[in-house]
Fold:
Amino acid sequence: MNIMSAASPWWRRDIHADRRSFLTQRAKAAAAVRGFFADHGFVEVDTAILQVSPGNEAHIAAFATEFEAPGGVKSPFYLHSSPEFACKKLLAAGESRIFSLGHVFRNAERGPLHHPEFTMLEWYRADEPYEALGRDCAELLAHVATSLGTENLAFRGNFADPFAEPERLSVSEAFLRYAAVDLAPCLAGDAGARMALAAAAEKAEVRVTDDDTWSDLFSKILSQCVEPHLGHGRAVVLDHYPAMEAALARLEPCDPRFVQRFELYACGVELANGFGELTDPVEQRRRFEAEMAEREVLYGASYPIDEDFLAALPFMPQACGMALGFDRLVMLMTGATHIEQVLWTPLAPTGDGL
Structure:
């Protein structure tokens, strides 16, 4: 399989011929996704790409632009990194089951599983339990696999049965099983918790630096020790994330050390991220401000908060939502090994050699 290089653009006929079978399968997968959600009573929404805020996660880099009004006044805007804010405003407006299949943008990301412009599938259920998302994922995998005639999900020699019921595994169980890390002493949210996690990381042979935050250490253990083992044979729902990794998720009412968040993995690849959605604007602002303060320290820049989004939150019903990387889903369904094999028109080759 040809992967593009600086000397081999995607529009060359021989390279396009190599990729075309993946691309036609992609088209079938998109049709299957739309059919699945239509059959389940969802409405497809088309959200604006230009937003006043690209999102407020510390490690997500955005593409910035500006709007020039007819009078010459300029206003900063960003290409959205997710349709999440817009979809939640639609829930506040009264929609109950919606999905979006569209392009999103994240800067400083390119590699076998990353591309600066990619396709995100997001769906939301108002007034329905968080657990419904896990059922959606299992049914969606089987539905798309049937539509494409796929018997096994595959990525770089790893396989998973798209028709098998996903394993449900808590983050704590996964850390103990694959990294021999007991998270319980590391959840206090203070300096002692960071020290305990750093010690556990070093024992697991994960490199620790003095400026690693708790979240940095958590991510290192997850990516190096846990993720490579997830989703072999069948998909895995990695559930009950620590509260320090809450993002936009609700706390677990029975144990506030954790949140209603899970990620879906197959063949060692993260496919999706789901939440029981937070609707408290005060808590959401606190989290956004903390993330942007961290971003300012790490990267010397932060992004504005969407005040319109925070104003809509009190009117939003209790809901659950899921974000799935559609390109990665197509990769696993077709056996592609690089995301640019399944993109119709990838970004032109740059100095990175891709």
